[in-house]
Known about the structure:
Distance between the termini: 27 Å
CATH class of the largest domain: Alpha Beta
Structural class: alpha+beta
Bound molecules: flavin-adenine dinucleotide
Order of helices and strands: HEEHEEEEEHEHEEEEEEEEHHEEEHE
Radius of gyration: 20 Å
Strand content: 25-35%
Amino acid sequence: xxxxxxxxxxxxxxxxxxxxxxxxxxxxxxxxxxxxxxxxxxxxxxxxxxxxxxxxxxxxxxxxxxxxxxxxxxxxxxxxxxxxxxxxxxxxxxxxxxxxxxxxxxxxxxxxxxxxxxxxxxxxxxxxxxxxxxxxxxxxxxxxxxxxxxxxxxxxxxxxxxxxxxxxxxxxxxxxxxxxxxxxxxxxxxxxxxxxxxxxxxxxxxxxxxxxxxxxxxxxxxxxxxxxxxxxxxxxxxxxxxxxxxxxxxxxxxxxxxxxxxxxxxxxxxxxxxxxxxxxxxxxxxxxxxxxxxxxxxxxxxx
Length: 303
Ligand SMILES: Cc1cc2nc3c(=O)[nH]c(=O)nc-3n(C[C@H](O)[C@H](O)[C@H](O)COP(=O)(O)OP(=O)(O)OC[C@H]3O[C@@H](n4cnc5c(N)ncnc54)[C@H](O)[C@@H]3O)c2cc1C
């Protein structure tokens, strides 16, 4: 990164910017080389100034949530990764639950369980931040974030405007949110919740967490589901049927517990994970004629 750019970022953010940070530290798969800068703006005005600076100096920028659904490249990334870790305000309002983009899944589950707020139980155990949930339209079979979002606030990529969208104006798809300008930053969401009983919410959450613990490899670094489910089938079932459970390349392994998870068994590189994704996809294609699309976001490229 050019010295002038470093200086500008430091002037703007002080110790809220760090340089040459390994992406492996910021992602749940624990792979990825260094990004030139990681910025954690303190508040909205600072974020908008940062976006303006990046736009003016033509520095590539992207937001990372909690890093639970990304694959970061071994060679690292140019530019700035923005993290909204200081955007953690969570308010219970008459209109719903308003959460800033950096609010974590556990904050939401805790709040709903404590206050008996019903509607978001299905998100229990979907690890990440509100910004990541919205971008991925995160969910479980039968229920997705789009079903509970009322409004979303978005900053334009150049940091010149903040716009509030009603849910019906947003184009959510299966594990995606389409239609926003590339580089847009999701700032907050208003979720629809209803007043229920704390016991009922807690019981629903416990049931879902127990189900996950039985069916997913939660004790190893992974990025959750690697492939999207094709219409009418399950990627995990197809991968298992192709004999891929336990198959490994380098330190990356198709989980013996759930075939749609790739585990970093220790020392995996991003290259190992990508090679495994491509090999698994090829084998399923040969066995079934079905091409599997990735759910995981491959930063700086495509799988
Ligand atoms: C063990 C495990 C289980 C999982 N189970 C599920 C599941 O049941 N259902 C499911 O849907 N997913 C699941 N996932 C995947 C993951 O939890 C979700 O995709 C989650 O939404 C990721 O949130 P994040 O904050 O970590 O996003 P990240 O992985 O950090 O980012 C994902 C994408 O969102 C973008 N992004 C994040 N924040 C913002 C923002 N504020 N503005 C603009 N763009 C942003 C990033 O640039 C990136 O492209 C699982 C993952 C793991 C590891």
